[in-house]
Specification:
By secondary structure, this protein is mainly α. It has helices spanning about 1-30, 35-60, 70-75, 90-115, 120-140.
């Protein structure tokens, strides 16, 4: 059970770190009429996802695993499609970050079931918290679509 859970947690940690980097990319580079609202939103997404990543990493370590969150691991292991670093327009960042949030939330929902099937309801609960938080962030991002 522990090895399965640590593997699931490791996958989610990589995705959450990648998601944080995408939020910062959007935060630093967004332009347009909604600049300040999006600049602040993207920064708050980074903060919220950092807390989720911390919870996931700590659970992996508590189960006897390692929290592998280096840039090399994230670049190698993330299943998210590349984020276009040339984006500037607010709407483009909204769509790109929204797609990333949706993909990570979908992965978290799969991990809920996989952890439960492995008999680790506590890790499944961690993934439920991640899924719920990501869905809320996605709602906030999608509320800015025009």
């Amino acid at each position: 059970m522990r090895a399965t859970s640590v593997g699931l947690l490791s996958q989610q940690l990589v995705l959450l770190i990648d998601l944080r980097l995408r939020a910062k990319q959007a935060h630093w580079n967004v332009k347009g009429l909604q600049f300040i609202a999006l600049h602040e939103l993207f920064d708050s997404i980074d903060d919220d996802v950092a807390e989720l990543a911390d919870d996931v990493a700590e659970r992996a370590v508590a189960l006897g695993g390692l929290a592998l969150g280096t840039a090399e691991v994230v670049a190698r292991e993330s299943s998210l499609p590349p984020y276009d670093a040339r984006l500037l327009a607010g709407g483009d960042h909204i769509r790109a970050l929204g797609n990333s949030l949706a993909a990570v939330a979908k992965s978290a929902r799969s991990a809920i079931d996989a952890a439960a099937e492995a008999g680790d309801l506590d890790t499944s609960d961690v993934f439920t918290q991640v899924s719920r938080a990501l869905d809320k962030l996605l709602w906030k991002v999608e509320a800015h679509e025009v």
